[in-house]
Amino acid sequence: MALRAVSALTWGLGGPGVGPLRSGTFLRCATQHRLEKMPSSIGFPEASRRPFSSHRILVDVDQSHGVATMKLKNPPVNSLSLELLTEFVISWEKLENDKSCRGVILTSNSPKIFSAGLDITDMYGKNAAHYAEFWKAVQEVWLKLYTSNMVVIAAINGSSPAGGCLMSLASDYRIMADNPKYTIGLNETLLGIVAPFWFKDNLVNTIGNRASEHALQRGLLFPPADALKIGLVDQIVPEDKVQSTALSVMSEWLKIPDHARQLTKTMMRKPTADRLLKQREADIQNFVSFISKDSIQKSLHMYLKFLKEREK
Ligand SMILES: CC/C=C\C/C=C\C/C=C\C=C\CC(=O)SCCNC(=O)CCNC(=O)[C@H](O)C(C)(C)COP(=O)(O)OP(=O)(O)OC[C@H]1O[C@@H](n2cnc3c(N)ncnc32)[C@H](O)[C@@H]1OP(=O)(O)O
């Protein structure tokens, strides 16, 4: 198997914003519309579209089908900066509160990069208060995605290292562009940092313990075909078919009654989400003390230098 690495290196019913069942779920299910036919592209008819956006997040809601497409837009590499994470949470809550929205396709506005992961500049050369705020936002985005009532499909239209991979892992289904230049994986060790337990839990739940041990320790980044083999993604498709495939997979998922699917998702994911929720503050303090260490700051500095100076 060809493995590539960049060288050098709420649950709790009613919990704020992350509860598994929105009020009215059962009522809505009884009257919900089934998706019989989905459009093959994002070109939804004007009348049923309700786009909204912020600086770094573009959202297009197809109200007649109950599906939103959310695009990350943070050039040049869609890094998950504090600003992007904050805007993500605001947009996500808007969708969660929109009763017509049952599914979200998460993708990137950039053609070659889904997301370069957490913004390293948010973890380098800042003060403890900044690191704490940043990490809380990272936790929040993961909790929102992982515990969402909506069907979440990641349309991975480019490389997806580290935090980018985590966002995909938190989705219900992953479709990746079949381009061997793209990679996906949790490569934290290559930066001299350690994936926290909840990144690890999400990976283990997806690809199993042995494959996770191997992938995490070596910081492996997998090309699409290998990611498919180990179950890191569910489907690979030609680059120009990622969005249309996501829409048709979404239509299949939305045929399942919401309440049954949501309760099943809760049953599967609650223990993992609860583990973070129970020690959220301690996890923030762990991150702050880890990332503030001179040795870790030095590793991040070297990695940023490597990224800037490497041959393209
Ligand atoms: C005991 C444990 C206790 C607690 C837990 C503690 C710690 C856990 C902590 C953190 C977990 C972090 C997870 C992460 O997500 S870390 C981020 C990892 N990301 C990567 O390694 C990806 C790096 N980037 C790339 O590989 C490539 O940029 C690319 C494949 C995404 C795109 O390649 P391109 O050739 O198209 O673009 P580049 O020229 O490389 O980049 C352009 C530009 O962007 C800068 N950049 C790239 N990635 C990042 C990033 N993640 N953050 C900030 N900036 C980034 C790159 O340096 C270039 O900048 P310049 O234009 O040269 O200035």
TrEMBL record:
GO terms for cellular component: mitochondrial matrix. CDD domains: crotonase-like. It is found in: Mitochondrion matrix. Its main location: mitochondrion. Coiled coil: none annotated. InterPro entries: ClpP/crotonase-like_dom_sf (IPR029045), Enoyl-CoA_hyd/isom_CS (IPR018376), Enoyl-CoA_hydra/iso (IPR001753). Pathway: Lipid metabolism; fatty acid beta-oxidation. Keywords: Acetylation, Fatty acid metabolism, Isomerase, Lipid metabolism, Mitochondrion, Transit peptide. GO terms for molecular function: delta(3)-delta(2)-enoyl-CoA isomerase activity. GO terms for biological process: fatty acid beta-oxidation. Belongs to the enoyl-CoA hydratase/isomerase family. Homotrimer. Key enzyme of fatty acid beta-oxidation. Able to isomerize both 3-cis (3Z) and 3-trans (3E) double bonds into the 2-trans (2E) form in a range of enoyl-CoA species, with a preference for (3Z)-enoyl-CoAs over (3E)-enoyl-CoAs. The catalytic efficiency of this enzyme is not affected by the fatty acyl chain length. This is Enoyl-CoA delta isomerase 1, mitochondrial. It comes from Vombatus ursinus (Common wombat). The gene is ECI1.
